[in-house]
């Protein structure tokens, strides 16, 4: 069996794979050689470097392991037509992303940006208007693995959590649940609206101008899922018209964010360059999932984890 990686794990991680699976031929190439892909049965990728033309040539390909959660840049229709199995690393982002989200919330609520600015300007001022998380409400769009971890931590701070998904069915660490169709009724209750939604047909442009009208003028909107959940002009208008107080953005419709974009200069916007999931443990956790699935694959065990529904895109 030939397995092609289009990114480079650390040398010791590569060696561990080779030692653990001696009957497998591993290729680690960045950028990858198309001839190697043509002969590969398994392709391990971040999901941004494979297109439909690659699939036409890779006639031996049976399984694509995506070392990220997002699949929106992949040719899913063509993959589905070939009946190629796709799995991803859903779940490994929950710790670093939950920590990042909490860090931003605490930073704003405890006025850390103002304190840091005062330090740079040598200003001793106690006029910092900090507030507590205790007793507030967070509406979490996408209460899956990441959203559940965010909910668990926020509940420890005394925050009431409301989860929102397509069906409204219960999710872990959510005090209440709502559905996409009932979202407008829940928004007026939320002090934090946190989107961790993937990019799918159902979530693209889910949030409209009407949704931001429903939010508290003191609300903080946070997007750590995908940038296309809301059109940037809609969000910009909501901030400029004070429909909401603050936005923390780790993802954008177009990345990198253009140098002349208004978000860079706005005092009530935090621009985070899609780094919330970064962690020294990222590849370690991704390879743990891969090795578990590869063991099952070689044993012809169909119960692989994180198998993607290619019609839904998640």
UniProtKB/TrEMBL annotation:
InterPro entries (alphabetical): D-isomer_2_OHA_DH_cat_dom, D-isomer_DH_NAD-bd, NAD(P)-bd_dom_sf
Domain called D-isomer specific 2-hydroxyacid dehydrogenase catalytic: residue spans: 21-303
Transmembrane stretches, start-end: none
Pfam families: 2-Hacid_dh, 2-Hacid_dh_C
Keyword NAD attached: yes
UniProt keyword terms in alphabetical order: NAD, Oxidoreductase
Domain D-isomer specific 2-hydroxyacid dehydrogenase NAD-binding stretches: 102-276
Domain of life, per lineage: Bacteria
CDD domains in UniProt: 2-Hacid_dh_1
Family: Belongs to the D-isomer specific 2-hydroxyacid dehydrogenase family.
PANTHER family attached to this UniProt entry: 2-HACID_DH_C DOMAIN-CONTAINING PROTEIN (PTHR43333), D-ISOMER SPECIFIC 2-HYDROXYACID DEHYDROGENASE NAD-BINDING DOMAIN-CONTAINING PROTEIN (PTHR43333:SF1)
The protein's name: D-2-hydroxyacid dehydrogenase
């Amino acid at each position: 069996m030939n397995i092609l990686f289009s990114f480079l794990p650390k040398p010791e991680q590569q060696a561990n794979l080779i030692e653990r699976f001696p009957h497998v031929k591993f290729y680690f190439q960045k950028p990858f050689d198309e001839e190697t892909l043509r002969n590969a049965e398994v392709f391990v990728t971040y999901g941004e470097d494979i297109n439909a033309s690659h699939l036409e040539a890779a006639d031996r390909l049976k399984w694509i392991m995506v070392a990220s959660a997002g699949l929106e840049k992949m040719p899913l229709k063509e993959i589905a037509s070939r009946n190629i199995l796709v799995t991803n690393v859903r779940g490994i982002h929950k710790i670093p992303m939950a920590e990042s989200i909490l860090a931003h919330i605490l930073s704003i609520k405890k006025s850390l940006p103002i304190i840091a600015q005062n330090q740079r300007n040598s200003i001793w001022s106690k006029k910092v208007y900090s507030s507590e998380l205790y007793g507030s409400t967070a509406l979490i769009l996408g209460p899956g693995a990441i959203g559940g971890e965010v909910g668990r931590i926020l509940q420890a701070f005394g925050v009431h959590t409301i989860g929102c998904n397509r069906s409204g069915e219960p999710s872990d660490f959510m005090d209440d649940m709502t559905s996409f169709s009932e979202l407008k009724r829940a928004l007026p209750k939320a002090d934090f609206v946190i989107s961790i939604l993937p990019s799918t047909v159902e979530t693209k442009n889910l949030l409209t101008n009407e949704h931001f009208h429903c939010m508290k003028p003191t609300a903080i909107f946070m997007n750590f899922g995908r940038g296309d959940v809301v059109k940037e002009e809609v969000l910009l208008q909501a901030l400029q018209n004070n429909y909401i107080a603050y936005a923390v953005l780790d993802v954008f419709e177009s990345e990198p964010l253009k140098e002349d974009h208004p978000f860079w200069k706005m005092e009530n916007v935090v621009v985070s360059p899609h780094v919330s999931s970064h962690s020294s443990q990222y590849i370690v956790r991704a390879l743990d999932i891969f090795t578990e699935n590869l063991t099952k694959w070689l044993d012809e065990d169909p119960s692989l984890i994180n198998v993607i529904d290619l019609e839904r895109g998640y």
